[in-house]
Amino acid sequence: MFRNCLAAALRHLARNKLYTAISVIGLSVGMCTTLLAALVIHDQLSHDHFIPGYDRIYVVASAITPPGHATIYYDSTLSFVGPQLALRFSEIQAVTRLNADNASLRHGNVEAHEHVYWADPNAFEVLPLPVVAGNLKSALSRPDTIVLSRSIARKYFGRDAPLGETLVMNVDGSTATHVLSVAAVIEDLPPSGTHLTAGIFVSSLAPWTYLNQQDGVPASVARTELGVGIHTYVKLSPHASARRLLQAMPTMAQAVFAGPPKGWTVALDLVRMDRLDTNPWLNPGFSSRLLMLTIVGFGIPLIAGINFVNLLTARSARRAREVSIRKLAGAQRRVLVLQFLTESIAYVIVASLVAIALTELLLPYANAFLNVAATFRYWQDPALIGAAVLVTLLLGTLAGVYPALVLSAFRPLRVLTGESRHSRGAGLVRQILVTAQFSILIGLLIAAAVVYQQRQFATQDALRISTDQMLLIRSPCNTAFTSQLRALPGVRGLACSASVLVDHGGVNVMLVKDKVGAQQLLYPIFVDPSLFDLYGIKPAAGHTSGSVAGTYYLLNETAARQLGFTRPSDAIGYVLPAYGHRAVPVIGVVPDFSLDTVEHKIEAQGFVVTAQDPLFDLISVKLIGQQIPETLSDIDRIWKGTGSKDPINRIFLNERIQIMYLDMLREAQLFGVFAAVAVALASLGLLGLAASIAERRTREIGIRKALGADTGNIIHLLLRQFAKPVLWANLVAWPVTAYAMHAWLNRFAYHVDLAVWLFPAAAALALLIALLTVSTHSILVARAKPVAALRYE
């Protein structure tokens, strides 16, 4: 029996090539989308799984709350916290620490600027990374040793195992050089499969490393400090439970810290290593990305599934006679249901094979676009193959069960006498499915528009400063270097500042008194007087430089309000303390601006304006647009002429902003791509549905034309049938999408308003797409001669 059903199903697929192609293409695109989304999500949820025992390794995180401000979360803490935890909890097998830094490495003629870790000698006991050569357990036991990744070893030595060879290191900010011996080589870290950002580990036993210097601070002093920066890893014993440690973490800070400054609170937490990137506090953007992939992974295949069900049920009139004859020949309904389910499963199997091929083709592009390393090695995993087969059978059954019940329910007498050819219930279900389909489409169109608007706002309007042709150079602001830069013909101007102007991490804050004597938080930023003119920032009150000499303050508007001044001009003359300077006056207030992302609120900033300061480690250079390539070459030449052993560290401000908003850019582009896919699938489904319905109503159209209906009347009749579910779809799409996008926008401190016009615009676009899709076929049917229609069947 099954063989007969399979043969009938395959004959039906071969006989109806157009509908088979539409169904298979739609299903394969939907299944490919789901596969890509699932693979990317799996990759994001499996970071660091290549490290043995990852499920027993936890990172100590810090939560610091300044007085009157939101909590700031860090995946690091102070150096003494890890050893203190090891002393207090028997569940801990080992503790190790890493401290990220930048340095220059040199071997022979090869020299480059690298990201490195100062690491405890037992680092690879806690983090057993895959080894290429050497003994990792003892690799960092001497103060002059270094461990390299395979690619770094090849870069400097041209081979994989240069054990015993030496490298010369120069740490950023220091003129001293250090000779290090290669003790081991590890495999390259997965480019996007781990939270570790460097493949170079230097023993912290060296007295010149920051970690070693921090260990030299007396415990009585260290416990009174407030800071972060040391990545601390805790490895639990094999059968230990993390529950007691996790429960103790919120109050642990009270035991290990002598006490934060007045008004501050400090808490500690443990985050499993493979969940650092998914932690909502440490990486707030991940949940949005995960939600986006989930919506796409379910929404697109749902549209494809709706197309499939609609096409099967819409062609019921053509198959009614077949069903009736088979019933009269003795076929039972369960046999017919089995046949139609077999057809459905056959569709899904063919679509699955196409989807697998598409996934293999598109996965490298998806990885490059999303900066992930998802893999699809199904041939190496029998369990995955078995799961794929089961899912295919399940999908085929679920997608085909309703059409099978509808098609097998025809009554032979009514069909053969022409009394009834189709079910009113089936028509209603089709209308509901089309409504659901276009609800998803309209929602995706609105979401794509909102994400695009927010991206444009974040990268342009929210900055409030001029970023064109602005080059950032991380360098001490010494006169010899800056005077040569100013003399270049392609340089319009430059200004010096502390790097905190663009780097907003850390806890570089100070407490000051407002005008009524209450303590307020102020973020000091040291800049030179020319910075505001260079960035095109005009004062809201007072002035930014002028004839004022010496050191003075410029406040942003948020700081002026926080200090109790209702008008910016009222803050002029107020005196505030400054690091390394006597109390200095406020001579101006500037509008709020920020080079941070719009996810973070602009804090109260106090710009300490001074001609020279040891904290100046960032140079902003405004270039002339027509001479940028030549000017960059001149800047590199001048940098080499200073005798610095480090490569120049420069980046355009626009480029930095694009990197900051890379995830948002990808979200905007991804929504746009999948909205286009949804439009294509919906159009494809409507095209097949229109052909089927027009075919079913051919005789009705012929009768209407014979009774006097013109072509316009027929077109209006057919188009109205497809317009209704699209219009009804708005009742579902609008409130759901409004709620979702409102929640998405609220994750930003500054965002665009949810524009009301987007909703009718998306509805009009969806309606236009639907009408254009079916109009061509409707016009052909409406212009047919009545005699041809009346002879139909």
Describe the structure.
The protein is of the alpha+beta class and 793 residues long. It has 25 helices and 22 strands. The strands form 3 sheets. Strands 14, 15, 16, 17, 18, 19 and 20 form a 7-stranded mixed beta sheet that branches. Helix 1 (2-15) packs across helix 12, helix 2 (17-44) packs across helix 12 (333-370) and helix 10 crosses helix 13 (382-407). The protein is globular. The mean pLDDT is 81.
Task: Give a quick precis of the structure.
The protein is 49% helix and 18% strand. It is an alpha+beta fold.
Keywords:
globular, alpha+beta, 22 strands, 25 helices, 6-stranded mixed beta barrel, 7-stranded mixed sheet, 793 residues, single chain
Number of helices: 25
Mean pLDDT, all residues? 81
Form type:
globular
Q: What is the tally of beta strands?
A: 22
Multimer state: single chain
Radius of gyration: 34 Å
Structural class: alpha+beta
Instruction: Show unreliable segments.
Output: none
Helix content: 40-55%
Major β-sheet annotation: 7 strands, mixed
